[in-house]
Amino acid sequence: MTGTPQKAVIIGASAGALEALSAILPDLPADFACPVYVVVHVPPHSRSVLAQIFSAKCQLPAVEVSDKEPVAAGRIYFAPPNYHMLIEDEGHVALSSDAEVLFSRPSIDVAFESAADVWGEGLTGIILTGANHDGAQGLQAVVAGGGVAIVQDPATAYASAMPEAAIASCPQARVMSLAEITSYLKGACA
Q1: What's the total number of domains in the chain?
Q2: Domain, as residue range, for 102
Q3: CATH code at 82?
Q4: Which residue(s) pair with 85 in the sheet?
Q5: Exposed e or buried b for every residue in 58-92, given b needs 16+ CB within 10 A?
Q6: Which residues are catalytic?
Q7: Which residue among 69, 115, 125, 168 is buried most deeply as judged by most CB within 10 Å?
């Protein structure tokens, strides 16, 4: 556990995301004291149902963000398809249609870098399962800002490329099972 109280959580995932997120998000308590930003690679021209799925199974409300969306603790914010999610300040999210990063929009790197700029040492960044390297650079930004870096144990991931890349770029990241990640979050954002 970090000595600094955590003020925000950002999670990036790709292939296998639904299962991994289902092992973490529903267990967060209704009084969870941090906003949770989630970036999942979804096809750009399809409708995402992640917010609906998790709103139904979680104690925290889950929404797909819109541009300039106000942010509050105890809510889950999903990046919409075909937009980068930028954390503008502690109270707002912006959307961008800038170029894809690592063939992805939304990009995990872009969201993590903006969150690290805003939340600094109060940010926990988590990289879960995925089949590319998106998130490795963003997790470096979390570490550079003094935040906590956590990576799903690649041995437990549906697709290990993303967690392996994150560990390679951030050797100081804490490697945890999904259950350990959930337990950490419950203590860090109490």
Answers
A1: 1
A2: 8-185
A3: 3.40.50.180
A4: 95
A5: bebebebbeeebebeebbbbbbbbbbbbbbeeeee
A6: 14, 41, 134
A7: 125
pTM of the predicted model, to two decimals? 0.96
By CB atoms closer than 10 A (0-12, 13-18, 19+), residue 172 is exposed
User: How many angstroms separate the CA atoms of 40 and 22, rounded?
Assistant: 13
Residue 1 covered by a domain: no
**Mean pLDDT, contiguous 10-residue spans, the chain (190 residues):** 79 97 97 96 84 96 93 95 92 88 87 96 97 95 97 97 97 97 92
Answer yes or no: is 2 within a domain. no
